[in-house]
Write a structure and sequence with these properties.
The protein starts with 6 loop residues before the first helix and ends with a helix. The protein is of the alpha/beta class. The structure holds pyridoxal-5'-phosphate. The site of pyridoxal-5'-phosphate (PLP) has 14 residues, from helix 3.
Length: 369
């Protein structure tokens, strides 16, 4: 029976299905740095940098979603950095998307290139044809943040494998409910769980998932040695968000598609990027590998002033960076130096009723044209 249950049902009952009489139904927050440890230093827990039961429960829950072993981190960047630390050695080459999350390139340039690692970049749309010869690690981010370019994960995975490289997929914009890179041949998934996974814009967190036992041990060791440990309170917030992930994502995906369609036919909008749109250049490949297209829509307005006016005036948009939270939000990405037009807005759908959101967006766009 449990084999036929959806991942989200198994996640919801993972802990409650094992409770002894009298145990709390809600996940306890184990706020402790140390554990009772008489005699020999062994047993299940001894010091919280090595393991904490609240964190381990969340890791098991995300493990159900990923069908893999999971290590949770205090941010998405801490998760990504741990993979670089565990895998890259002087003389290695790493290939990352030129149009993906900018701090990944900044981290490599600041800390890994000076240690003798070669950094190569390639646009997401060209990843499936990239030259991977001599690479130790290839990273993809699909759909990419913020441009929403998509690459064919299975094709990239096959090419990485034949080049002898590991493939790491940043699955933040899709989440494991919409896309499973490990099923398509990726060796490692990394995510910023700060976004849709935790889902309430109140905690930073991230994870690494892999089905390779050696990589899993290497990442765990890295976390123990570097000390990038999530606290039990933050782990609890992530757990609490995960319990409603499917519901929130269904609404966010529906909102993003409805808003993208409305924007597409609006005269004030120069272009719309959303892999769920039938005429998006990445729609076909997205259809093959995604079950939903995520909360982010990219739209280009006439110029910086129109973009700022749209974000400020739309009554259901908070002006903020990040995405995947319950409130719809938006920002102009050129302000961070992303290689996008000045009028490019990254719109992140929240969970407002769809009709309200479409009306608010359309009416605000009407005032621009
Ligand atoms: C936000 C984000 C990150 C970084 O995650 P943090 O939790 O902010 O450290 C990495 N990759 C992508 C695609 C992101 O959107």
């Amino acid at each position: 029976m449990t084999d036929t249950l959806s991942r989200i049902s198994r996640l919801l009952h993972h802990r409650t299905g094992r409770l002894a009489k009298g145990e709390p139904v809600s996940l306890p927050i184990m706020a402790t740095s140390t554990f009772h440890l008489p005699g020999a230093p062994d047993g299940s827990h001894f010091y919280a940098r090595n393991g904490n039961p609240t964190v381990e429960t969340v890791e098991a829950e995300i493990g159900i979603l990923e069908d893999a072993q999971v290590v949770v981190f205090p941010s998405g960047m801490a998760a990504i950095a741990s993979v670089f630390q565990a895998v890259l050695r002087p003389g290695d080459t790493v290939l990352v998307p030129s149009d993906g999350y900018y701090n990944v390139r900044n981290l490599l340039a600041a800390q890994f290139v000076p240690m003798g690692i070669t950094l190569r970049t390639c646009p997401t749309a060209e990843m499936a044809a990239a030259d991977m010869a001599g690479c130790r690690l290839v990273q993809i981010e699909t759909p990419s943040n913020p441009g929403l370019a998509v690459c064919d994960i299975a094709t990239v995975a096959a090419r990485a494998r034949s080049a002898g490289a590991l493939l790491m997929a940043d699955n933040t914009t899709a989440t494991p409910l919409c896309q499973q890179p490990l099923d398509l041949g990726a060796d490692i998934v990394v995510m910023s769980d700060t976004k849709a996974m935790a889902g309430h814009s109140d905690v930073l967190c991230g994870h690494v998932a892999t089905r390779d036992a050696d990589l899993f041990e290497a990442i765990k060791t890295c976390r123990r040695l570097s000390g990038a440990i999530i606290g039990p309170f933050d782990a609890y917030l992530l757990h609490r968000g995960l319990e409603t992930l499917e519901l929130r994502l269904d609404r966010m995906n529906a909102n993003a598609l409805a808003v993208a369609r409305a924007m597409q036919s609006h005269p004030a909008v120069l272009s719309v990027h959303y892999p769920g749109l039938g005429n998006d250049p990445f729609h076909q490949v997205a259809m093959r590998q995604m079950k939903g297209f995520g909360p982010i829509v990219g739209l280009t307005l006439a110029d910086e002033a129109s973009a700022e006016q749209f974000i400020d005036d739309c009554p259901l948009l908070s002006s903020a960076t990040s995405f995947g939270g319950v409130h719809s939000s938006a920002e102009r990405r050129a302000r961070w130096g992303d290689d996008v037009p000045d009028g490019f807005v990254r719109f992140a759908a929240g969970i407002e009723p769809t009709a309200d959101l479409v009306a608010a967006v359309t009416q605000t766009l009407d005032t621009l044209s």
